[in-house]
Amino acid sequence: MYKAPVICPVCGNKLHIEKLKCSNCNSKIEGEFELNEFATLSNENIDFLRLYLLNRGNLSKVSEILGISYPTALNKFNKLLKDLGYIQKETFEEPNEQPQNTELEKKKIIEMLANGAISSKEAIEKLKKLKGE
After folding, report:
1. How far apart are CA 84 and CA 41, in angstroms?
2. Is 71 in a helix, a strand, or coil?
3. Eight-state DSSP code of residue 81
4. According to the model, what pLDDT value does residue 133 have?
5. Three-state DSSP class for residue 30
6. DSSP class of residue 116?
7. pLDDT tens for residues 36-83?
């Protein structure tokens, strides 16, 4: 099956569904049915959401699987939330603000430690590096 288009190719307005059909008994239901927000997601966002759900919301694990940094995974997640209409902007931090980036890195290190990806010694070393020691 093909993914249902959500935008009219002629005028650019949002499409709605008018007919549903059962593939088993051929029953048809007609009316106006609205697509939910998940139907409007790009394939990339759907794949990211699936991976996020399969990993029980663990962005550290998602970033590890995708081979991207935790902040990049967080930005992809924020873009997903924006595309769903749940937030207004894609990122919560300003790219030039060092303190928030440091906080993100600390959280990433703590999550990695909690998930067993690094030892406590490695976590301490990484935290010291962040502090500049």
Report:
1. 7
2. helix
3. H
4. 59
5. strand
6. T
7. 888 888 889 999 999 999 999 999 999 999 999 999 999 999 999 998
Q: Write the CA distances from 98 to 74, 79, 93, integer angstroms.
A: 16, 21, 10
Q: How far apart (Å, rounded) are the C-alpha atoms in residues 68 and 108? A: 12
Residues in the chain: 133
Q: Are 50 and 98 in contact (CB under 8 A)?
A: no
Q: Which residues contact 105 (CB under 8 A, 6 or more apart)?
A: 70, 126, 130
Question: Mean pLDDT across the chain, nearest whole number?
Answer: 85
Run of H or E including 17: strand 17-21
Nearest to 124 by CA among 112, 100, 99: 112
DSSP-assigned letter for residue 22: -
**Are 91 and 106 within 8 A, CB to CB?**
no
DSSP 36: P
**Domain residues of the chain, as ranges?**
40-131
